[in-house]
Input
Amino acid sequence: MKVKRLKEILESLDEKLENVDDDLEVFIRNSVNPCGNIQELEQVEFSTYGFFGKAIPCLILNTDSSKTLETNKEDEVIYYISSN
Output
């Protein structure tokens, strides 16, 4: 991903995240990178995680090897998804 695309994504996320609580936890989904030790951020997911029987809202940063990424009809990665 190039910085130009990151700026576009962040700009679109500003609108989507403006109503998200600033104290919400952010996590990186575990992934195994088949080569090297770094990987591109592909998707931001608004979801929940389980903690002692509670569903706690959070943002999860996904890579293409951490989960199957959701795509649109043109098979392009959707950069912000909501699992809730």
User: Anything to note?
Assistant: The chain has a mean pLDDT of 81. The chain has one domain: 3-82. Residues 3-82 form one domain. The beta strands are 25-28, 43-51, 54-62, 80-82.
